[in-house]
Amino acid sequence: MKLNTDGLIIREQQTGDYDRLVTIxxxxxxxxxxxxxxxxxxxxxxxxxxxxxxxxxxxxxxxRDAYSIDEAQPRExxxxxxxxxxxxxxxxxxxxxxxxxxxIEEAADDYLRLTLNALHMxxxxxxxxxxxxxxxxxxxMCLSGYMxxxxxxxDCGREDSAEHYFSPVEGxxxxxxCMGDHTCIRLSDGELAAMRHICYSDxxxxxxxxxxxxxxxxxxxxxxxxxxxxxxxxxxxxxFYKTMRG
Length: 246
Ligand SMILES: [Zn+2]
Hints:
Elements: E1 2-15, E2 19-26, E3 30-36, H1 38-41, E4 55-62, E5 67-76, H2 85-101, H3 109-123, H4 129-143, E6 164-167, E7 172-175, E8 185-187, H5 189-200, H6 213-231, H7 236-245
Parallel strand pairs: 3-5
Antiparallel strand pairs: 1-2, 1-4, 2-3, 4-5, 6-7, 6-8
Helix pairs in contact: 2-3, 2-4, 2-7, 3-4, 4-6, 5-6
Bound molecules: zinc ion (ZN).
Zinc ion binds at residues 153, 155-156, 158, 174-175, 177-178.
């Protein structure tokens, strides 16, 4: 059986001298692991389409035990990422988180679009890396069914409190009067507005907000904590990205 779909290579591994195993985030079948058997099977013009961060159209053969890529037509390779180890390590983290959260063998169009947009913003340096990280982390949680409640205090229902606190474990905001009963982090108005924007905005406007560098640092810590609290996982690529940032 043969599948044809668009996808992004989110991981590559060498398995033996000639075999490469790649993980593809595909539009129609979610996360797929497939052999990309090197120059022998993939025409040379499409070789680059099976490298990490390559986006393209894939023709994938589904064998009895494994998938293998028959043909790959590259569309976008994200060369802009290769100039900078910090960008590469963040892109690897984004890809790993996408692979951990996107479905397997069912459509993942929204995950693919979000991941491509994040890599594009990073490669073209259109937003600070920490902003791209925070947006990706929080929005991918929303796609996975973990949208936090950010509109009212979870305890008393107030909308207009002067102080806002966020609980990464509970995924809710509480007001200053109720915060004593929760393990939570104080949010500035700007940080709360940014989190609401990331969760509720239209996908075309997702990356269009500005925050100070200090607030971006805090926002990125908060969204990261939220991912760890909700998924229960601390990804290896995240640790590596932090080392690269120094
Ligand atoms: Zn309250």
